[in-house]
């Protein structure tokens, strides 16, 4: 189906970014589009939106959409982000984002630096260390 409009300024012409595109837990067959080394573990639409909004791009979130290859129907895996990378005249909105791949690489690079990610990982490590310490103590008592 051809697009009804060729104007890149229309919301229908924004590029789509699904979280699965930058998810390191997914394979290429499951929809990942960047190398695993550069991908992020389980990104969400909210994180992608936060990163791209902070970069100054025009962003639209559609929470009721899902990637066709995503079998998990959980809320965590739902949604897609539409991003405007071209202006009305066809020139890029920002020089560093001239293609989809550049936007995906930027998102994958910046999500681990979000405050929500750094706080979660810090708390998880201390919990894991406490659990291991308890197990070691029980083994010594035997």
The number of strands is 3
Largest β sheet strand count, sense and barrel closure:
3 strands, antiparallel
Order of helices and strands: EHEEHH
Order of strands, main sheet, comes to 1-3-2
* Radius of gyration, whole Å: 19 Å
Estimated helix fraction: 25-40%
Q: What structural class do helix, strand and pairing data support?
A: alpha+beta
**Gross geometry:** globular
**Poorly predicted tracts of residues:** 123-134
End-to-end CA span: 70 Å
Number of helices: 3
Topology of this structure?
Blueprint: E1 15-17, H1 45-54, E2 58-62, E3 80-84, H2 100-110, H3 115-141
Structure description:
This protein is an alpha+beta fold and 142 residues long. It is built from 3 helices and 3 strands; from the N terminus they run βαββαα. It has a 3-stranded antiparallel sheet with strand order 1-3-2, with helices on one face. The chain starts with 14 loop residues before the first strand and ends with a helix.
Question: Summary?
Answer:
The chain has 142 residues and is α+β, with helices and mostly antiparallel strands. The protein has helices spanning 45-54, 100-110, 115-141, and strands spanning 15-17, 58-62, 80-84. A three-stranded antiparallel β-sheet has the order 1-3-2, with helices on one face.
């Amino acid at each position: 189906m051809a697009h009804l409009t060729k104007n890149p300024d229309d919301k229908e012409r924004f590029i789509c970014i699904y979280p699965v595109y930058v998810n390191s837990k997914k394979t290429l067959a499951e929809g990942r589009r960047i190398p695993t080394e550069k991908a992020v573990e389980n990104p969400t639409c909210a994180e992608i939106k936060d990163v791209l909004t902070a970069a100054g791009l025009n962003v639209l979130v559609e929470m009721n959409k899902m990637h066709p290859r995503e079998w998990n129907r959980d809320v965590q895996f739902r949604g897609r982000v539409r991003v405007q990378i071209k202006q009305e005249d066809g020139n890029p909105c920002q020089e560093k984002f001239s293609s989809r791949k550049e936007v995906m690489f930027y998102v994958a690079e910046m999500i681990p630096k979000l405050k929500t990610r750094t706080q979660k990982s810090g708390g998880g490590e201390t919990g894991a260390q406490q659990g291991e310490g308890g197990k070691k103590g029980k083994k010594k008592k035997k």
